[in-house]
Specification:
275 residues, mainly alpha
């Protein structure tokens, strides 16, 4: 066999380049039949076939108009806000709120206050759950405030007692009784029970008790222990002023040892008479 014949046989036995490399065939897709601008749309890639696309469309169609709600913005009208509140669960009427208030033993619900709260909650679009949550929070801080006030009352009483005992020593009980008598006769029986903003009682205010005791020192004991009406009368007070300011009394003599005390007593009596 000649050399040319051998070469020809070898060339025939070797696969041609066209048969060795096969061109892959693209997998057919349901999108192939769509126009070009739709075929390449990324939103269609999640659908594996026409059936899946059809189911998605039907579901979307059924949702159109169902519980549709305007997304609120700067120009949202009151009517649109009202519609939003209703769709978010607001009762149709303030009376629709069924709220529970945690009350301490013996406490009762203030119906007028509760009604006002419901109206406000409805006005601002609160759902029942939101209104209840807000009420629970208010009750919790209100209860804590009451506890704080009770604690403040105890602390104020202890502090006042300690301060005056240190200041008056053995005269503490005596001075306290004098202050109490003045308060009862000129300010009323319940003056010491008045509660201040911090929860403490007026009767536990050391400055007040100290001041009442000073008044007691310039008002005669007979006035304090006598009949309340006569003791409080301007006539009785004025008579004492007249006696203390009589001619040749210490009131007029600056050199008299009792001058300053007499002047202070007269000033205190005049202040009481003038109210």
């Amino acid at each position: 066999m000649s050399e040319d014949q051998v070469t020809a046989v070898e060339e025939q036995s070797q696969p041609s380049e066209s048969t060795a490399t096969e061109t892959p065939v693209a997998e057919a897709s349901w999108r192939d039949s769509l126009p070009e601008e739709l075929k390449t749309n990324a939103s269609l890639e999640k659908f594996s076939d026409v059936s899946t696309l059809a189911k998605s469309y039907i579901n979307a169609e059924s949702m159109i108009g169902k519980d549709k709600m305007v997304v609120p913005g700067a120009n949202t009208t009151e009517e649109e806000w009202s519609d939003i509140y209703d769709k978010l669960g607001r009762p149709s009427d303030p009376k629709g709120y069924e709220l529970k208030a945690e009350l301490a033993e013996g406490e009762q619900i203030d119906e007028q206050l509760m009604s006002s709260f419901k109206e406000t909650a409805h006005k601002h679009g609160l759902s029942p759950a939101q209104a209840q949550g807000l009420l629970d929070y208010y009750n919790s801080i209100s209860s804590q405030s009451m506890v704080d006030m009770e604690n403040n009352a105890v602390l104020a009483q202890e502090d006042s007692s300690r301060t005056l005992r240190e200041e008056w020593g053995r005269s503490y009980e005596e001075n306290l009784n004098k202050a109490s008598n003045v308060a009862k006769q000129f300010l009323g029986e319940d003056i010491f029970s008045v509660q201040l903003a911090d929860g403490s009682l007026l009767g536990d205010n050391a400055s007040l008790i100290r001041g009442l005791n000073k008044i007691a020192t310039v008002v005669s004991e007979d006035t304090l222990v006598g009949d309340k009406d006569s003791a409080a009368s301007n006539a009785g007070m004025q008579q004492q002023i007249n006696d203390l300011t009589a001619p040749n009394s210490p009131y007029w003599n600056k050199m008299d040892p009792q001058h300053e005390a007499t002047v202070q007593k007269v000033l205190a009596l005049r202040e009481i008479v003038s109210g």
